[in-house]
Amino acid sequence: MSTLIVFLAPPSAAPAGDYRYALTLDGHAVTDHGSVPLALLPHTTRAGGDVVAVVPAQALSWHRVTLPKGVGGTGTNTPRLRAVLEGLLEERLLDDPAALHFALAPGLRAGEPTWVAACNRAWLQAAVQALEAAGRPVARIVPEFAPAAADDTAPAALYATGTPDAAQWVAQGWGPERGVTVLPLSAPALLLLQPP
Q1: pTM of the entire predicted model
Q2: pLDDT digit string (tens) for 133-157?
Q3: By the 8 A CB rule, do 83 and 73 touch?
């Protein structure tokens, strides 16, 4: 099955820019990649092909929460769960919770800590709608970087990403909770990161 992976531009980027993409026919090897205007993105080449949208690290904030028992569970997306998440995150968010989209980490179990990703809901909806209008309906939305799973033994990693005018450090699996931290690409920013 072919998969078109589209890297969404950060909310601060110009809306009509090029889209970075990668195309795989088998899910293992990249057969095409590049940066093109939306209308020129390739189509998946086989029936049942998927479009995967990748949310940039700087568009997400990650929060560790423990859902109370009786809330959540696999495949759960209810107004009650949304209300519980808003209550748990209200003091930690810089934006109004109603303006944010929340995504829970896979393998959620009530009563155990889990990761919640938050991003601007209007930005995400506009990005997905633009792809759908161009004939590339999104099947999955994934983060560019995600926190390490509780049982992950991989070492912490530090990446330098972005462009020369918007470079950043991305620390993955860093700190006691093994989360994701995005900082400007500068020597002083490194001082903010505690050794893993």
Answers
A1: 0.86
A2: 999 999 999 999 988 776 677 788 8
A3: no
